[in-house]
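Our preliminary data section would be incomplete without showing what the modeling component actually yields. Below, a chain of 332 amino acids is followed by its predicted structure, encoded as tokens that our downstream tools consume directly.
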Amino acid sequence: MSNIRPAEHAGSWYESDAQVLGGQLSGWLAAVKHIPEHNFTPPVAGSRAIIAPHAGYMWSGRAAAWAYSSIDTTGIKRVFILGPAHHVHLNRCDVSGCDYYVTPLGNLLLDKDTIGKLLKTGKFGTMSIDTDKDEHSIEMHLPYVRQIFKDSDITVVPILVGSINSTQEKTYGSILAPYLADPENFFVISSDFCHWGRSYGYTFYYPEPLPSDVPGVFLKTHDSQQNLSQRPIHASIRDLDQEALDILTLPSESKSCSPAADSHGKFAEYLDRTGNTICGRKPIGVLLGMLSELEKSGMRTRLQFVRYEQSSKCTSVGGSSVSYASAYISFS
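Predicted structure:
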């Protein structure tokens, strides 16, 4: 009997009716526009990976469309999905033990052969079925993957990324880099960006627009708008996230011979300095580990963000907001 993961969040985080869901995704994808300054005309020929959000579709579905619209499906046979662990503590990466993932738009077959090869490295564990079902960071990408590849007989390789350190990010990056180098594979990196507010335990605030010598502070409950330099909190959040987007964008402005490796180090330093609650920071770290490994053999990366949104325009300490960003990755 097949080990099947149901569409646990269908009907709550996204539509469960196939016709309604398919129409919704098609509409969001059709709304994506050309961005001349980023030379972005979807689909992007030769795109090999994306960074995209994983919140409920009412919040992040439109933003995710900008990443998914960039996908050039030509020749793709396998999709790796790297998502952060929200409900269990892991000090490694885990693969799925399921045979199929269910979506309202049709099932997705897991690539058991590739999963077996990853397990043979000794670096991967296997998710329990309960962990697999509880985790939304991978599931929220499945309808989009099924929609984009609706005419393709693809398989998927879900990977749950735990609380690994920078050295482990490089190790997993080294293991996965050959798969990213293979044009038959595509990678989805699942991440939201800043989770701001007392409910998230994070109230970092820049009193002045960046660049500035004035350091950021953590706001207290009693801080009023008058104490916020008359600068809206959502503008500070935008600057905070933009720092991360600038670090991750490749090629960078530096003339380094190893820009991806440099970005990996700068991203870790940025997270230590700001504490920004980017929930997919570990999958992003593994992506940077892969790109760092590939640039050793001369591959050069273009990582371009094409969309940024906030769930709300936060203006008070009592408010909250989650940020969503979408990017595509290609090689030259």
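DSSP finds ten helices and 14 strands in the chain. The longest strand covers residues 321-331. Preliminary results of this kind motivate Aim 1 of the renewal.
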